[in-house]
Amino acid sequence: MEVTRTNYAELSSEIEEAIKSCSFIAVDGEFTGLNNGPSNLSPFDSPAEYYAKMLSGSMDFLFVQFGLSVFRHLSDFKYENKTYVFYLFPDTSNRQAPDVRFLCQASSISFLAKHGFDFNKLFRDGIPYLKPSDESALRESMEARRKLWEQTLSSPQPHIDVPAAQKPQVDEVMTQIKELLNPDCDKPEVRVEKCSAFVRKLVYQTVREEMSGSGISVKTEKGVLVARKGVEKEQLEVEKQKKAEEEELEIKNAVGFVSIVQTILNSNKLMVGHNFLLDLCHIVERFVDHLPQDYKEFKEMVNSLFPKIIDTKFLCSEGPLRDLFPSTVLPAVKETVSKPPFQLPEITSPEGRGVQLESENYHDSGYDAYVTGICFLSALRYLESNGEKVHSVNSPLLNKTLNRLHLMRIPDSCINLGGKDPEPSRAHVFHVTFPKTWTSEHLNQFFSPFGMIHISWINDTKAWVSLNDRSQADRATKILGKKSSKLAEVTVVAHAQFQASFVSPTTSLGSRAHVSSSLAATKRKLLHSNGQGQEDGGLRNKKQRLSSTNHSGTVSEKNAKVSEVSQLEAASAKPSNDNFPVDDNWG
Amino acid sequence: MEVTRTNYAELSSEIEEAIKSCSFIAVDGEFTGLNNGPSNLSPFDSPAEYYAKMLSGSMDFLFVQFGLSVFRHLSDFKYENKTYVFYLFPDTSNRQAPDVRFLCQASSISFLAKHGFDFNKLFRDGIPYLKPSDESALRESMEARRKLWEQTLSSPQPHIDVPAAQKPQVDEVMTQIKELLNPDCDKPEVRVEKCSAFVRKLVYQTVREEMSGSGISVKTEKGVLVARKGVEKEQLEVEKQKKAEEEELEIKNAVGFVSIVQTILNSNKLMVGHNFLLDLCHIVERFVDHLPQDYKEFKEMVNSLFPKIIDTKFLCSEGPLRDLFPSTVLPAVKETVSKPPFQLPEITSPEGRGVQLESENYHDSGYDAYVTGICFLSALRYLESNGEKVHSVNSPLLNKTLNRLHLMRIPDSCINLGGKDPEPSRAHVFHVTFPKTWTSEHLNQFFSPFGMIHISWINDTKAWVSLNDRSQADRATKILGKKSSKLAEVTVVAHAQFQASFVSPTTSLGSRAHVSSSLAATKRKLLHSNGQGQEDGGLRNKKQRLSSTNHSGTVSEKNAKVSEVSQLEAASAKPSNDNFPVDDNWG
User: Where is the composition biased (Polar residues) (chains A, B) (predicted)?
Assistant: First the structure.
């Protein structure tokens, strides 16, 4: 069910009821950029470094579509589902709400447009939202405005001498107004159409000073000055009250979608998402509060807001499920759970609230949220199939997955919101500096005594290199120190030693300001991007999407498509002993 | 005529021909933000300050629609017109071109969407563009990539020992390939499907080392390893040539709309725009080259790119036309020139290339460009009506208008691209500091001995105040110095003295990074925004749009709509002796 500004008010209580009565909630978001998370990740980033990069690079993009899929357990493996797709766009009708500026990434926008995302609907009918801090600021500013009025009312007004240019008009209007006091006058009001704000101001002043207690009041209605007799004090109160109610409605409309998020937060229901970290960050940043700079604070904040979280990407990559999922991108996960040993749940939906699983409508946040929920249920059933079949979303079998968030391109770590993050060994990882002319060939040769390696480029002359065979770590550390000392311009530093040597630059927020990507960066990367799937830095989502995700090697589509004869191919194909599969846009 | 990616190639030579053969070109642009120019203008900014603010605040928005309306003189007051509306969006299919990030302003996006702008068409079918510097970078990166290949071809390859894990597969593939050399073999090729990039690399190496001169070549086609016998050197050259041609086509497609801009530049035709500065800046920045920081360089650059420019907004605000145009926003200009003493030209257009003047399709860049051209012709005819009726776009009557650009909200200055800018006196302008509790009432009273004033707020405690009666300047300078010294917290400094006292902060480019507008700023402004049309800083386009544009005073729509009884109104209405009409989004 699509939810826009036009049907939001009508549907909101239904949706809130659905949230309160469900067993769990699956969600998904679409953004105007970096749907895939930050582009400058290294597979050896700590969770804190990962978070800092996400914060500095991804949060200025807009949250444009929120998929909410609520599942209510009926019996056995039967669930009722209701799925809602919210189009979200900041309010621009309320002049006192912020006029949001946001960043877009051309590739993400094109990608969404090609997948049928309706931007016209978004921009015309998107539901507004205002997070609590902005709501408070709006209330404060309205309050301040009201107070200023009242203060001005009760304090003596500075008198302005009527300038000569305005005097004839002010006198003319005053004559008309005074006529209202004539007992023979049967007009209830005087209306003056062509009257500037300044003249009206002067008329108000004159009425206040010369006609106090006369029962004459002056106001402006759609630019027309209107003077009436016999306006009672009670009426003034009624109008004030009416105005206050109007303002309250205006605020409620501006808060918009945030009230749905509040209902979700208050429900304390289990939240399920696929590759959930980015969505969670955007949900908090746009609808709850600014994300803290401090990683520990971030964990505490999200954990207290969402005490029960399952990231299905983490669920499928770890523990007993790991070997059953050849790929953990969402369409592949759906494929896997659609066949034995998995089984899909039986789903019913009220008219217009359901999703057709067969539609393959990926990248619609409602479809993705629904598929995520289905995958979660299938995986849970499999986990329980050897024990008691309770199909409970509170199953203790989920304990090792609960509140763990998958980190893109960092397969051996995660964010554990409820406790300590894993601290995988980096003894097999080296920071290598080398001459500009080096390609991955040279690195492979340099490290050949220790078997296959994975290269994560930093720039033309620097890379992280990790040994596939971790048992070689000690030997490599000893030998490479010597070896590099013989080669000019080559240095090899162990990961821990390198990290200790300086404060990580990744926590700098400077890149938040970065607007247009530099072709120079792309150019630099190009020299190393043939057939080497795992690159960091300026690579694009798309490029990453096009890379295959198996462990045996990645080939860019470019190489795969363009026919080249043997020697060109031989030159461009590089050994791709990539342990870090590159995920695509689906997460 | 709408021009998108789908019909651009087909139409481009027609359009280029139309540009070359026309009498003049009218253009208009639509952007993703600040269609109205920078929001932090002061009416006392110098042209250089104005330019610096535009550069720092407006250039990260995207140029999304370019209206091109070319007029060719037929006879007397008859013209042929062809109008094209280009939807423009950066290329995201070419992985080596930059993945542009751009800024959007929610109010501008909403505004365009409400006026029927088709964002889906934009994002799906927008024509790409790549300015010359980006094109060069793209060529360089492609060249670098090619060189790397060739270099690798001609230099000895580092040998990689075949690892034990890959050896069986490599051996198996090599056996198959060697079979091709068997005279009895009638297969022309061997295809190996399941083969990682690394294994392919090892196979290439083995073929190179063991089968040199055998006539066997190996390449990859869509991920499949293909070995063939008898591939000639000529074929290799043909394939290289084909690849080079494909790359050239790829570059041509990426350059896209920039070739139209090049044709315009080369034509040296008279360029006409309405409120032209912002459009010109965006045209240069997106399609020509980065705008220089230095104002003088900017003038020289634009003047050399576009040697003949008419800004119809400047044309209608100055000289003999000034008193004939009650407003210079585009729809008002069109209204004025549609009635005597003006006369509309007679226009013919080829099928599908014309514009219906009656459609009132404002904010479509094609319509706006066309109306601009029509207004220019009508104004020119009026100017010539007392002299020789040559209707020439080279009329010397335009000399005082040529290459002058209107500055929004700065009615007494302009940018003169071809010479010295005006230097209007600022002797009647004062920089005033005052207590936080002050409103415009207090300022009006403070300055009352010198007549009406205009207030341009800087913040809660600072404003620029100008005297409407410039002859009061000297007297005010003498008296106010004394007056302020008696009041604590009030200081009055003459404009020239204030400017001299510090380097203008407006040249800082820090705000380029500013992404989300702060509600606090809006809040602050609120305290002073009642009925006072001319504010600077955080005010929104919309707010400005809603303000009336006459000289007698401006009233915000809010005040005009909400019924308030006399005293509330009296408190909120402020004297609005605004000499600086606030223009709307039409320019």
Answer: 546-557
